[in-house]
Amino acid sequence: MSETRLFLRQLITQPRQVSAIAPSSRALARAMARNLPPGRVVEFGPGTGRLTEAILAAGVAPEDLTLFEMNPDFSDHLRRRFPGVTVILGGAETAPQHVAPGVGAVISGLPLLSMPVVVRKAIVGAAFSVLGPGGRFIQFTYGPQSPLPEVERAEMGLAVERGEKVWLNLPPATIYRFRRA
Fold first, then answer.
1. For position 19, what pLDDT does the model report?
2. Backbone phi, then psi, for 30, in 5-degree steps?
3. Is the peptide bond before 37 cis (omega within 30 degrees of 0)?
4. Structural domain spans, the chain
5. For the whole model, what pTM was predicted?
6. For residue range 94-135, what is the model confidence (pLDDT) as tens digits?
7. CATH number for the domain whose boundaries are 3-95+102-180
């Protein structure tokens, strides 16, 4: 099945889980994967693998990439498409159970702002549990505000850098990079 058909089928059958009107564009994927640190990378919510493709193209070795995907159809597709990449069928909040600390970056395509606060904090907390010193949590959002509100960043001891706005995405998306303050 083509990626577009797979995406559309999942969008129709599980719209709350997919929560996007189109797969991430190649332009957004390249921008998210730009300037990745050397070493291991984790991706939350890879979907059909557009960001995964860009992460690998940026030089991350397949054995250094771990994906967390809750949708079984997407997980099966990712395993077939990216041999050598570790695909975990499960939520991002379980990352510390599967990945040793010391990761250079966690890249997320999850819709953080549409999640309950407790879930959002669990996911971001899991990311920082596996990130090494100087590691970055890289997230995009379609909204006009940070995907992690200021009060939550302060509670978690995080600083944020607003990155570029990617207009060649449907809808346009803004990238944010979070680090320990």
1. 59
2. -65, -40
3. no
4. 3-95+102-180
5. 0.90
6. 999 999 999 999 999 998 988 899 999 999 999 999 999 999
7. 3.40.50.150
